[in-house]
Design a protein that fits this description.
- The structure holds 2 protein chains of 2 kinds.
- Chain A is mainly α.
- Chain A has 11 helices and no strands.
- Helix content of chain A is 71%, strand content 0%.
- The two termini of chain A are 34 Å apart.
- The N terminus of chain A is likely disordered.
- In chain B, β8 and β9 form a beta hairpin.
- In chain B, the strands form 2 sheets. A 6-stranded mixed beta sheet of chain B has the order 5-6-7-3-8-9, sandwiched between helices.
- In chain B, α3 crosses α4 and α5 packs parallel to α6.
- By secondary structure, chain B is an alpha/beta fold.
- Classes of the chains: A mainly alpha, B alpha/beta.
- At the A-B interface, α1, α4 and α11 of A face β4 and α3 of B.
């Protein structure tokens, strides 16, 4: 017999119990979310295109016809902020509620608990990739065009996903103990919406706050996206480094905190 | 190593907080200041010790609330013990609540894949055994229909078929033998007997005394989290069923 003998100290959860295929499971969980989301809709997956199209249409109308600003391509500028922000905010929220929503599963099947919030965040990212694709099309065909810095975008967005994964691990765990956490997340999302330069330019922020702004990965993400897509310039190495540092930190922290939190999941779910 | 145990419990305690109002932020903050109160803890297992050798099949009997299901979730690794040690050697498959990962809007085929992945089946192995699962469930014609159109019996057939194909070293069974019609139940039972013949370890909880007696050779009688009796199945069942009927 293999040496998987798991004599345990009290309070520890045996680690060798689930020897399954992590990638296959995550793939199946993502497919489940996507299928369930659209199965009973007569327009099906088209909705993931229609929803953002409506949003973009309205914003386009408001910011070109009604609210006329001096900022060139203001509608595109706003969308370059809103789309990455939306991906972030929704992923964080679905990740946070994922464990509680899968309570029956967690109490009956010994899957590694980390997989549940991770799959929730990733399936949300897959779902919202349509919005991102639409944004890219819009930028490409609205007269701004494609530039060589677009190759940095996947790196920027990947860092963002790592950041949300870390947050989702921490907050999904906390949400098991105190169900109020999801409302805290919703409120923080509202605050973040205005603390991230979506409707105003970064240059309008007073200089003493700019440093701090860039350490907020959501702000850094939006800034980098705007610089690349709208202004067509390289988004400063220091900004990218700050984004990378804070994202990786939160990602690692997420796993550490989750390990501490998960011992009580069975009792609190 | 000689004499390695399949399952070993030593002085295992497991308690649950009584939940009223405990999930509210207010009570968390309250506990923070007052220090953790131990009042309101319900002990499901009180210093339980037993061991099982590989290839043994053991039944757990006892009234509702005796700690039977808690015992299985500790073995399955779903919950940690408060104190004492739980040691488990080998791959565990838990037939606890069949179909826990099922979704009504997914088709039968999609549910099979999702559930199998949850139970730890690998992608390559899934390709080999998908046919067997469908065949065992005997509902091949409905594989592309959403699960919500299935009858309860069909759902159970599907869930059981996936679960028995995990091929574990240790099989945990919680009341799941009440599956489907008579013929299918007999088929499931044969499948489990087959596990036993192949030298797998089986730990089961059931009220169907007759089935348990055919499947297991030894039994544990739990009462309010304590081990009352550990011995040959016939003797334990007799003692359990002949107990003075005190309502707890």
């Amino acid at each position: 017999m293999s040496a998987s003998a798991s004599a345990l100290t009290p309070g520890a959860i045996p680690r060798s119990k689930w020897t399954g295929d992590h990638l296959y499971l995550i793939q199946n969980l993502i497919l489940k979310d996507i299928r369930v989301r659209y199965r009973n809709m007569s327009l099906g997956v088209l909705w993931s295109l229609l929803n953002p199209l409506v949003m973009m249409g309205v914003l386009w109308f408001v910011f070109t016809k009604i609210y006329n600003t001096q900022i060139p391509h203001f509608a595109v500028f706003v969308l370059c902020g809103i789309v990455p922000y939306n991906v972030f905010a929704l992923s964080w929220l679905t990740g946070t509620t994922s464990l509680v929503e899968s309570a029956t599963l967690i109490k009956r099947v010994p899957v590694p608990r980390e997989i549940i919030p991770i799959a929730a965040v990733l399936s949300n990212c897959v779902h919202m990739s349509c919005q991102v694709a639409l944004l890219l099309l819009l930028v490409a065909f609205s007269g701004i065009g494609v530039n060589r810095y677009w190759v940095i975008l996947p790196v920027v967005w990947l860092l963002e996903i790592l950041f949300v994964l870390g947050l989702a691990l921490i907050f999904s765990g906390l949400n098991v103990y105190t169900r109020d956490v999801r409302y805290v997340v919703e409120s923080v999302n509202v605050v973040l919406f205005w603390l991230v330069p979506i409707f105003y330019q970064f240059s309008r922020i007073p200089p003493q706050f700019r440093e701090i702004y860039q350490y907020n990965p959501v702000a850094a993400l939006v800034l980098a996206s705007q610089r690349i897509l709208v202004e067509g310039v390289y988004p400063q190495t220091s900004l990218l480094l700050k984004l990378a540092a804070s994202s990786l930190l939160v990602f690692v922290l997420g796993f550490i905190v989750f390990r501490k939190l998960r011992t009580g999941f069975y009792n609190y779910l | 190593m000689t004499g390695e145990r399949a399952i070993e419990f030593r002085e295992v305690w497991k308690g649950f907080q009584r939940h009223t109002g405990r999930l509210l932020l207010r009570s968390h903050v309250g506990n923070w200041f007052r220090g953790r109160r131990e009042a309101g803890v319900f002990h499901a297992l009180k210093g339980l010790s037993f061991e099982m050798l590989p290839g043994e099949s053991v039944a757990v009997v006892g009234a509702n609330g005796a700690g039977k299901s808690t015992l299985l979730s500790l073995v399955a690794g779903l919950a940690p013990a408060d104190s004492g040690t739980v040691a488990v050697n080998g791959r565990v498959a838990a037939l606890l609540e069949l179909g826990s990962g099922f979704h009504p809007d997914l088709t039968g085929a999609e549910n099979i894949r999702l559930n199998a992945a949850l139970l730890g089946i690998h992608r390559e192995r899934m390709r080999e055994i998908y046919g067997e699962i469908v065949e065992f469930a005997e509902i091949a014609d409905f594989m592309d229909e959403p699960l919500r159109t299935y009858s309860a019996g069909m759902v159970m057939r599907l869930a059981f078929s996936v679960a028995v194909n995990v091929d574990p070293d240790i099989l945990l069974i919680d009341e799941v033998l009440a599956v489907g019609d008579h013929a299918f139940r007999a088929k499931c039972f044969d499948k489990i007997l087959d596990f036993r013949r192949r030298g797998k370890t089986i730990l089961c909880v059931s009220h169907v005394s007759d089935m348990v007696q055919r499947l297991c050779s030894r039994a544990l009688w739990l009462d309010h989290g304590e081990l009352m009796l550990d011995g040959p199945i016939a003797a334990v069942c007799e003692a359990y069923e002949g107990r003075p009927s005190v309502q707890g």
